[in-house]
Amino acid sequence: MIVKSENAEFREFYGVQFQVLAIGQKSMVCKMLYKKTDSVPIHKHPNEQSGYVISGKYKLKFGRYDQILESGDSYVIPENVEHGFEILGAGVRIPAIVGSDSADRGHPRKAYILVTAILCSGGHDGSTFGIS
To answer: Which residues are bridge partners to 90 per DSSP?
Structure first.
């Protein structure tokens, strides 16, 4: 699948704006457009997540990590590991979630939307889709 920038879909959920870039059978990539007032509370999901910071400043917490991320930084968060982002400066982050071959792990699209949209604003605990 190829998605040209003019065809990427813009969405907003609980005040967090994002752009859906590409959706596969087991993965999804979006461009998150954070305001300083947005937040990503501590949560976990059954999919590994990796990401790249284009701009802005974030504090990422998971496992033994408690790091400031800025432009050019990247990360990988293992599946089922609690993590959260504090938005220190408005910017753009590209998270990608890759699903598992295991059918009982949940649908990566649902997990991705929860992690990057609903949970970014703290409006949902994720339990509806098996994410906590």
So the answer is: none
Cβ-contact 10, 19 below 8 angstroms: yes
Q: Is the Cβ–Cβ distance between 59 and 67 less than 8 Å?
A: yes
- The predicted model scores a pTM of 0.69
Return the structure tokens found at 107.
């649908």
- Which DSSP helix (H) or strand (E) runs through 97? strand 91-98
pLDDT of residue 99: 66
Q: Hey, what's the torsion of the CAs at 73, 96, 13, 80, to 10 degrees?
A: -100
64-79 confidence digits (pLDDT tens): 999 999 999 999 999 9
What's the DSSP call for residue 56?
Answer: S
